[in-house]
Amino acid sequence: MFDLTLFFISAVLTVIGAIMVITTKDLMHACIYLLASFLGMAGLYLTLGADFVAAIQLLVYVGGVVILMVFAVMLTGGPHAQKQNKFGMIKTALMGNIRTYTIGGLTAVVVLLMMVKLYISIFKNYTAGELPNYLPTVERIGKSLITDHVLAFEISSVLLLGALIGAAIIARPRKNRIN
Amino acid sequence: MTDTIVSYLAKFGPFKDLLEFLTESYGANGPTLFAFLIFLVGVIIIVTILSTIGGLGTYAERKISADMQLRMGPNRVGPYGILQFLADGVKMLMKEDIVPKDVDRLLFFIAPMLALTGVFGTLAVIPFSSGFTLTDLNVGVVYLIGISSLVGLAIFLGGYASNSKWSMLGGMRGASQIISYEIPIVLSILAVVLLSGGLSFGVITRAQGGWPHEWFIFHNPFTFIGFFVLFIGSLAETNRAPFDLPEAESELVSGYHTEFTGMRFAFFALAEYIEVFVVCGVTAALFLGGYQVPFNLGGDTIWGQLLQLGAFFSKTLALYYFVIVIRWTLPRLRVDQLMTMCWKYLIPIALFNLVGAGVWMWLFKGKSLFVLLFKSGTAAAGIH
């Protein structure tokens, strides 16, 4: 019963948050609705017994990604910047040209087809299963990260190192700018 | 299974009987509902006590600062002015609730709530004692770091939504400061996690002992430095002086909460004071032995739990006292000094600590400095 309650609260939070993200016109509000959606996702992970993933979801998405997005929105001029063009007319958000719309549409169709293909097989032979008993996952994740999946672990660390060095190079003051 | 307040209470006879009775009469839903009710009561008690501590924190701040500046401090309301925080709270409630015209209303209303949510969310995993912990999540440390970052977001949103230059500057400073100082904090917490081999506060606390030489702060030289890195970082996380740049009165009026009045302001202030307590409690649990009592006096009984509560609260409140004393002793840093200190000093030191702690674990098989120095003596005395 408790799991079901948690599931419904989290699901409602996730779905409504996601819908509000795409319907709201204010970028800053969209970040907050995204926060709600991420919190709901953490709750959904918890109902599945994935405690470590839920905690990491909190840490990375709620604590990191949303704050970074808010920062980025603000540093790029905020939601109220350049709403009017030079004739004083309010711009409508076009967000792209014909090429991006074509690529986006095709991608959406492909993803939709893939999901339909996946879900049809699930709905055909659907039997209500029982969740396995709750077991702490931290230890198992740690062990498999440094044994079976050590290559993925190392590659992601190299990726992060690359990102770090790239950020340092971008942020470094240029020496040859003497004017 | 993780330890919770329910699993502690279930050790006692009457509760066991009650649980069995509920299972017989209502099936599996009975104990779940009962556990939910116990959690509800526990949450209400802890939130009430912590809010009182937060309120008393403002009183302590004023009294200690008065002491250091040879003044009297608040002394009119109640004995020694101890009810001053209640009078302040009533005043806050009675204030006119001013919402400036051009604020972003949604964010303006949600920011104080987020600050308080982030702080109260951390209370779920604070190890007050071995029994009276709301829940001892096995990812407690990660959860705590994640949920407490809501406060940083709230500070930033509060500054942004106010649509005022002072608030904006304060919010920006707050957010950048909190993001930066999270790194040394997490790195020095990781060193402790490495030593204890667990992400839950219960495991970390149980890996230490009641005596100071069994605490992680004196475990090896690296954790000794790590404690101070964590303490400095947590001062910056909670926007306390000398890192209170987001609310620097001399430059920014009152920083991110300039435009907030009445209860909305009180939410921010309360969140700040409770967060100081939470941070001190976490530091005490990670480095100062947490709720551990010498000889494990009292054990699992109620009296043992009360002793453990006493140990935890005395350590935490001692740290709280130091935080307040530091505020009234040191001058405020500049923004560039703040960032320099974090990125050029604290993070390298914390990284060095992490590697050092790992090497120590590998070289000495996790034995503490005390054990290594007095190995034969401690073995003879039976302390280890």
Would you give an account of this structure?
Chain A is mainly α. Chain A folds into three domains: 1-82, NADH-ubiquinone/plastoquinone oxidoreductase chain 6, subunit NuoJ (Four Helix Bundle (Hemerythrin (Met), subunit A)), CATH 1.20.120.1200; 98-126; 137-179. Helices cover 70% and strands 0% of the residues of chain A. Chain A is built from six helices and no strands. Chain A has helices spanning 2-23, 27-47, 51-75, 98-124, 138-146, 150-171. The longest helix of chain A has 27 residues, at 98-124. Chain A is globular, with a radius of gyration of 22 Å. The relative contact order of chain A is 0.07. The model of chain A has no long low-confidence stretch (mean pLDDT 81). Chain B has one domain (99-376). Chain B is 68% helix and 1% strand. Chain B has helices spanning 5-9, 13-26, 29-68, 84-94, 105-122, 140-161, 165-196, 201-206, 221-237, 249-252, 262-287, 302-327, 335-364, 369-373, 375-381; strands at 3-4, 135-136. A two-stranded antiparallel ribbon of chain B has the order 1-2. Chain B is globular and about 65 Å long.
Low-confidence region ranges of chain A: none
CATH class of the largest domain in chain A: Mainly Alpha
Largest sheet of chain B: 2 strands, antiparallel
CATH fold descriptor of the largest domain in chain A? Four Helix Bundle (Hemerythrin (Met), subunit A)
Number of helices of chain B: 15
Instruction: Spell the H/E element sequence of chain A.
Output: HHHHHH
Main β-sheet of chain A: number of strands, strand sense, barrel status? none
| Residue share in helix of chain B | 55-70%
Query: What is the total domain count of chain B?
Result: 1
What is the architecture of the largest domain in chain A at the second tier of CATH?
Up-down Bundle
SS-derived structural category of chain A: mainly alpha
Shape of chain B: globular
Category from helices, strands and their pairing of chain B: mainly alpha
Q: Give the number of DSSP strands of chain A.
A: 0
Based on CA atoms alone, the radius of gyration of chain A comes out at: 22 Å
The counted number of beta strands of chain B is 2
Distance between the ends of chain B: 28 Å
- Could you state the oligomeric state of the chains shown? heterodimer
Q: Please indicate the percent range of residues of chain A in DSSP E strands (runs of 2 or more).
A: under 5%
